[in-house]
Amino acid sequence: MPKRAASALAPALQIERRAGEPLHRQIYFAIRQAILNGSLRPGVRLPATRGLARQLAVSRNTVMSAFEQLHAEGYVDGRVGAGSFVSHRLPAVVPGARARPGQSSVLRPARPGPSARGARLAGLDRGRTRARAFSPGVPELEQFPFDDWARLLARRWRRPRRAFLVGGDPAGYRPLCQAIADYLASARAVACRPEQVIVVSGTQQALDLAARVLIDPGDPVWIEEPGYPPTRAVLVAAGARPVPVPVDDEGLNVVHGRSLEPAARLIAVSPSHQFPLGVTMSLQRRLELLEWARAAGGFVLEDDYDSEYRYAGRPLAALQGLDRDGRVIYVGTMSKVMFPGLRVGYMVVPEQLIDAFLAVRALVDAHPSSIAQAALVDFIGEGHLAAHIRRMRALYAERQTLLVAAIRARLGERLAVAPSAAGMHLVGRLAPGSDDRAIAHAAGEAGVEAPALSSYYHGPAAARGLLLGYAGVPEPAITPAAARLALVIERAQPSANRQHVG
Q1: pLDDT at residue 101, as a whole number
Q2: Which of the chain's ends, N or C, has fewer CB atoms near its CB within 10 Å?
Q3: pLDDT given for residue 98 in this prediction
Q4: d(Cα 123, Cα 131) in Å, to the nearest integer?
Q5: Bond prior to 2 in cis (omega within 30° of 0)
Q6: Beta strand 241-248 pairing with 220-225
Q7: For the structural domain made of 3-86, what CATH number should be given?
Q8: What integer pLDDT is reported at residue 38 of this predicted model?
């Protein structure tokens, strides 16, 4: 056999008989790699199968299987009576090949990767946290009525309608749209017809659809400062220009927003329980916001992500119920009241936008999963959802009380926490000048998830603190987790440097 082929293959053909990879695959990969990296050039004749089998101490059939695969994939050409040769039809510059002495170098393209816009989006903070104490936004999962849910799913699967198997409505399963409209009318004072309800996979998809329908590249959009990082990320992905507007004790400051950007096309807010600060937008601010939308021809996207969990009185009415001009797009999710993996959310769009939203919904994602929607209709209709929310509301109130007591007992003024009338997390305030990001990182190393408040600001942080989610933390785990967090804060703030938190 030609020495060139034999010498080029000798280092590569190292057969490992104890490896999990079959021998013929090992031979195939070794020869293919030698071709791709230029060790075997086009036109070089490969060793005869009989001689190569003898050299490797394997059966000839093993070698022939490897050669057959190389032939089938175009790496090798066979000539009757002459043997097998490296194909001339390979690219002149193969991946990984190096220029040989005397060979002209060829300009190669840059390493494959995302576009500049894709790289920028990939680098955006999406606010992900791990599901452990005290991860914000994680509901209690162990006490969900899975037996009831499994029974309802099984009932729908037993004799599934043909429509569930072959397609669906872009708006979602119509009976679910009706059930959601009825639920929102009674629980959230949302004024809508079932035709205005669109089922989506979650809040982010709802925001993405709103951005696609309402925003042109470069359009200004008000966002809350501080706010939910994925909101900004979705808007940037849509080409919008986010305008951070400060949030104070009354919610988003509409007057300040007007001074920053009076011609915003959209405002993304969470008026019932602002994330992350937890404040509720005052009635005056709500009316100011609706007046701005009417006068400016803009729209308001109301993110009502956890409004069911209010521990003093009934949940507050939604902003959408005050809208008389078709300017509010209402968004809710089942992730907090059921479980995040369900991936079911919903939006209520103004009458004049229904057709546009449905057209874009069909273009982007055709339709949501049908069986889960049908089971959800039964889950709501048979009272399971309302009963589960009642149980969780009482449980979360107990867990919040326990968390506040544990933090105050161990940390006092070092991490100032106060009970909240709503939500699934608290904000613990640190002393001015504290490095809350360093503390959050150290807490993570200690097994506690407590995101830094400053990480939710798009610009300079006006406050320092930690987010403390309690909804998904079992009662026996709250005090030990608070103790671990306390050790981290005590190391970061020695007693000699205690400062009063205002």
Answers
A1: 40
A2: C
A3: 44
A4: 22
A5: no
A6: parallel
A7: 1.10.10.10
A8: 83
| The CATH number of domain 169-366 is 3.40.50.11210 | no
Q: Are strands 266-269 and 220-225 parallel, antiparallel or unpaired?
A: parallel
- Work out the angle at residue 312's Cα, subtended by the Cα atoms of residues 382 and 387, and round it to the nearest 5 degrees: 15
Residue with tokens 């075997």: 40
Q: What is the pTM of this model?
A: 0.79
Bridging pattern class, strands 425-429 and 345-348? unpaired
- Phi, psi at residue 462, to the nearest 5°? -85, -10
Quote the Cα angle for 16-22-25, to 5°: 95
Task: Determine phi and psi for 329, rounding to 5 degrees.
Answer: -105, 115
Q: What is the DSSP code string of 185-243?
A: HHHH-----GGGEEEESSHHHHHHHHHHHH--TT-EEEEEES--HHHHHHHHHTT-EEE
pLDDT of residue 472: 95
Taking CA atoms, 143 is separated from 36, 285, 472, in Å, by 56, 37, 10
Domain 387-497 has CATH 3.90.1150.10: yes
Question: Look-up: residue for tokens 């406050």?
Answer: 463
Joined tokens for residue 4: 């060139």
Give start-end residues of each CATH 3.40.640.10 domain in the chain.
169-366
Tell me how far apart the alpha carbons of residues 41 and 246 are, in angstroms, rounded to a whole number: 65
- Residue 3 is predicted with a pLDDT of 45
Helix or strand run (H / E) with residue 383: none
Residue ranges of the chain with pLDDT lower than 50? 1-3, 92-108, 496-502
Where in the chain do CATH 1.10.10.10 domains reside? 3-86
Angle, alpha carbons 74-78-79 (nearest 5°): 145
**Can you give the pLDDT at residue 93?**
45
Q: What is the pLDDT of residues 314-360, one digit of tens each?
A: 767 899 999 999 999 999 999 999 999 999 999 999 999 999 999 99
Angle at Cα 202 formed by Cα 125 and Cα 166, nearest 5°? 130
Helix axes 475-492, 436-445, angle to 10 degrees: 130
Q: Six-digit token pair at 302?
A: 């109301």
d(Cα 238, Cα 216) in Å, to the nearest integer? 8
**Cβ atoms of 278 and 312 closer than 8 Å:** no
CA distance 64 to 48: 10
Residues of the chain with CATH 3.90.1150.10: 387-497
DSSP at 226: S
